[in-house]
Amino acid sequence: MFLPDYFEKYSIDNEKALAYGFSKQGEKFHYDQQILDGDFKLYVTVQSKQVHFWLVDQETGDDYVQLHMDQMVGQYVGQVREACQQALEDIRSSCFAVKDFLYPQTKRLVDWISRQYDRPIEYLWDRSPDSGVFRHQKDLKWFGVLMKIDWSKLDARQEGKIEVLNLKQDHVSQLLEEPHFYPAYHMNKKYWISIPLDGRVEDDLLFELVAKSWVLTKK
Fold first, then answer.
1. Beta-strand relationship, 161-168 and 50-57
2. Which of 63, 134, 195, 197 could cross-link to 163 by cystine, CB 3.0-4.6 Å?
3. Is 148 helix (H, G, I), strand (E, B) or coil?
């Protein structure tokens, strides 16, 4: 199955979707666009919070079922899938918002990165559905990693779940002397730190550190 959970953590933003080109009929949103120089048309519908998409071969008028058949491989079907994913990525980043964060600061962070850098959070791993990355558009290098983990992974005195942001920094040892920064969970602790997103670090400082990570990861 091609991108089975691509919209699972997202909800449609009605205003943005209509501005993008979606039409609304009752409670159903509909959008279509041509891809690969008009060889295919991509259809997207949203109804009852469920997102469905499919491709139609413009020459035959048939659904391009090969898109979702894992056993179908080869250069051409690969090109079709790549073009489809690029179109869906633009639709998702332009018309949808991530839902269900633990903390308001996490939502503010995701919104700020979207406005500042025009980059969405991307959930890449089926085995870690609560972990997402922020990537540079050109080379896809990560400049931030958002994770929901057990607090005890960072601080044995804490319990429950916490959302953290991993960022690359150039003065890690100095930052770790401060009470609200931790050695990076599951990443290179020499260059990365983990920051809890429960509000203990002010937004202005958090965004400043994101900007630093953006610059460092572009090198």
1. unpaired
2. 197
3. strand
Going from the C-alpha of 1 to that of each of 9, 50, 52, 58, the distances in angstroms are 18, 16, 13, 22
Residues of the chain with pLDDT under 50: none
| CA distances for 168 relative to 31, 133, 172, 191, 199, angstroms | 38, 13, 8, 6, 20
Q: How far is CA 21 from CA 11, 36, 99, 155, 157, in A?
A: 17, 19, 22, 47, 50
Query: What predicted TM-score, i.e. pTM, was given to this entire model?
Result: 0.65
Per-residue model confidence as pLDDT tens digits over 171-213: 999 999 998 999 999 899 999 999 999 999 999 999 999 999 9
Dihedral, CA of residue 64, residue 94, residue 14 and residue 203, to nearest 10 = 140
Amino acid occupying residue 30: H
- Check residue 63 and report its DSSP letter: B
Q: Are strands 28-35 and 40-47 parallel, antiparallel or unpaired?
A: antiparallel
